[in-house]
Each structure stands twice: as C-alpha cells, then as structure tokens.
Amino acid sequence: MPQSSRYSDERVEQILAQLVQVLESNQAPTDLSLMVLGNMVTNLINTSVAPAQRRALARSFADALQASVREDKAH
Fold first, then answer.
1. 10-38 pLDDT, tens per residue?
2. Which of 24, 28, 52, 53 supports an S-S bond with 33, CB 3.0-4.6 Å?
3. Cα separations (Å) of 74 from 16, 18, 49?
4. Given this model, what pLDDT does residue 3 score?
5. 2 band by pLDDT with thresholds 50, 70 and 90
6. Are 54 and 46 in contact (CB under 8 A)?
7. Are the CB atoms for 41 and 54 separated by under 8 Å?
8. Which residues in 36-52 are b (16+ Cβ under 10 Å) and which e?
9. Distance CA 50, CA 58 (A)
10. Which family is this sequence assigned to (predicted)?
11. Any idea of the CA torsion for 32, 67, 58, 13, to the nearest 10 degrees?
12. What spatial distance separates the first Cα and last Cα of the chain, rounded to whole Å?
C-alpha cells in the first residue's frame, strides 16, 4: 500500500534530481554513491532525531528500503 506524504511528488523529484546531479558531476560510482547517501542518512538521524527514537527510525528506514528494492533482472 503506498504511503501518503506531506510533500508533493514534484518537490521530492526536484530534490532527487539535484542529488543525482551532484553524484553524476562527481562521477561517483555506485558504491561511493551508496556510501555517501548512507552517511547522509546516518548524519540526519544522529543530528535531527531524539536519541530514544533513532534505532526505531533507522529500522523503519531500512525496512522501507528493503521493500522498495525490485527483484527484476534489469541493471
């Protein structure tokens, strides 16, 4: 079931495009891109979420990530 968001699709897509542009302009390979994005998520959780909520939010994020990964053969 899709989750509703308080943010418009257009806003999400605009920010996503900007992040992709930064990674591409740095010619970051997939592993480096994932490392940078993972560090960004960790930093956001550690600096913006109350300590008592961090593990739960990280688990929720990880579960959402797992649910969004496709199993198709496309590369």
1. 999 999 999 999 999 999 999 999 999 99
2. 28
3. 21, 24, 36
4. 61
5. low
6. yes
7. no
8. eeeeeeeeeeeeeeeee
9. 12
10. Belongs to the UPF0352 family.
11. 60
12. 25
